[in-house]
Amino acid sequence: MEQAEIGLIGLGVMGSNLSLNIAEKGNKIAVFNRTAEVTRKFHAEAGALQNQIVPCETLEEFVAAIRPPRPIIIMIKAGDPVDQQMEHLKPYLSAGDIMIDAGNANFRDTMRRFDNLKDSGLTFIGMGVSGGEEGARHGPSIMVGGTEESWKRVEKVLTSISAKFNGEPCVAWLGENGAGHFVKTIHNGIEYADMQMIAEIYGILRDGLGMSASEIGNVFGRWNTGRLNSYLIEISEKVLKANDPITGKPMVDVIVDRAGQKGTGKWSVIEAQNMGVAATAIEAAVAGRILSSQREERVAAERIFGLPKAERPKDGMAFLADLENALLAAKIGAYAQGFAVMAAASAEYNWNLPMPTIARIWRAGCIIRSQFLDEITSAFTKDPHVANLIVTPAFSKMVKETDGALRRVVSYAALSGLPVPALSSALSYFDAYRRSRGTANLTQAQRDFFGAHGFDRLDGVDKHHGPWGSGLEEFA
Ligand SMILES: NC(=O)C1=CN([C@@H]2O[C@H](COP(=O)(O)OP(=O)(O)OC[C@H]3O[C@@H](n4cnc5c(N)ncnc54)[C@H](OP(=O)(O)O)[C@@H]3O)[C@@H](O)[C@H]2O)C=CC1
Ligand SMILES: O=C(CO)[C@H](O)[C@H](O)COP(=O)(O)O
Fold this sequence. Notes:
Number of domains: 2
Strand order of the largest sheet: 3-2-1-4-5-6-7-10
Bound molecules: NADPH dihydro-nicotinamide-adenine-dinucleotide phosphate, ribulose-5-phosphate
CATH topology of the largest domain: N-(1-d-carboxylethyl)-l-norvaline Dehydrogenase, domain 2
Organism: Neorhizobium petrolearium
Protein name: 6-phosphogluconate dehydrogenase, decarboxylating
Keywords: Gluconate utilization, NADP, Oxidoreductase, Pentose shunt
Catalytic activity: 6-phospho-D-gluconate + NADP(+) = D-ribulose 5-phosphate + CO2 + NADPH
InterPro entries: 6-PGluconate_DH-like_C_sf (IPR008927), 6PGD_dom2 (IPR013328), 6PGDH_C (IPR006114), 6PGDH_Gnd/GntZ (IPR006113), 6PGDH_NADP-bd (IPR006115), 6PGdom_BS (IPR006184), NAD(P)-bd_dom_sf (IPR036291), Pgluconate_DH (IPR006183)
Order of helices and strands: EHEHEHEHEHEHEHEEEHHHHHHHHHHHH
Structural class: alpha/beta
């Protein structure tokens, strides 16, 4: 029997759809799932693709079904299960075989797994996949990290299954070891910020302007034809217009306002902090999800403090235009922060991450796909090493056109008691970033006062402590 080109372990939401996508693009694939019943059901329901899929119930049978050197995608629950699965698989593999973790792994785990396999003759690829269920089935964005040689072995099949933007495949080899999973993590960090900002605008429309879910859906629908055109705005319109089949009410109105999170947003923030990069919009988005989860406390606090009355803006149409521009301005801040984190990581881990390529492969297939990412691709192609996306000619122009709107929206929200942590942090990030004389001179003076930490002087004079003595005089 003809051997399979590739194998896949884990027929959950992502793995089953990815397998069908691989099979549909003409690649024969062997599949295995911990629970064999799932494999049987998957194969039975594969329809016309059945002949392209080899269902296997033991790992021995599974490995034997794949042509060496064997690329094996592991698409299972992230964390310990991946280590366990790799250990179970290893005894059946031969030199040159490639284990590919396609889940949302922490890049530190990926680096460890990569290193652990170094002397075994086996290879490891850490591969970020984005696009959810639909993307996995019809074309995800794929971020690959590993050796260039192992990438060459899988390039053809991954290119065949990836999303295409104007015919260009949304897959790329981004660097060694943890590069692919790091980039996927930051993709998700940006996704958190993008979603949080959209939710904050939704909050203003709902609680400030008193609009219904479907009216807000219409607003997002209109915005999706303009500069905010993106998958997240598109699905926001759809979810806002959907009704609950049980109550007939708008679906969003019966969903508990408590956001889940699986870890990639938090890892983005941790890594940004570790590398000394300000990723305030992503931090605000993670904090926003944390606060949302403290629902009982919020309910109790509202009983104590009540809610301020939100005044309707005088000119509704002008305010709607401001909201659209505010979202764009804040979004630029969030993406600038995400790319700055990746630039720092690239230097820290010697990955040489290709910023234009990253923007290019996010233009289609992934959750943050948008027209906007095409503009980011152009900006980074013109200047791949620019310090911050905000200062590129195209984006500085956009910021100048929209920051006033963000300022008015954040002011309105503050006066109305409407929480806008991501929008306001993006505004403050911009205001801090573009101000040559900040306020850290006072912080430095304080640090020197209480801890003799020293400071630099503007005039360059070689005197690094203030005239405040030890700072302990008041206790004498
Ligand atoms: N859902 C999404 O939108 C996206 C998910 N991801 C990532 O992809 C990965 C898979 O997610 P998803 O498909 O949604 O998950 P599902 O919950 O749908 O499927 C989980 C899969 O993992 C298997 N599994 C769980 N524990 C173990 C274990 N200890 N050993 C072996 N297999 C195990 C399950 O097998 P069994 O049937 O036996 O339980 C099942 O096949 C995760 O890392 C996720 O973060 C990435 C991008 C998007
Ligand atoms: O990777 C994804 C999308 O890109 C997954 O859907 C992931 O689960 C999203 O993260 P979270 O569950 O923390 O919201």
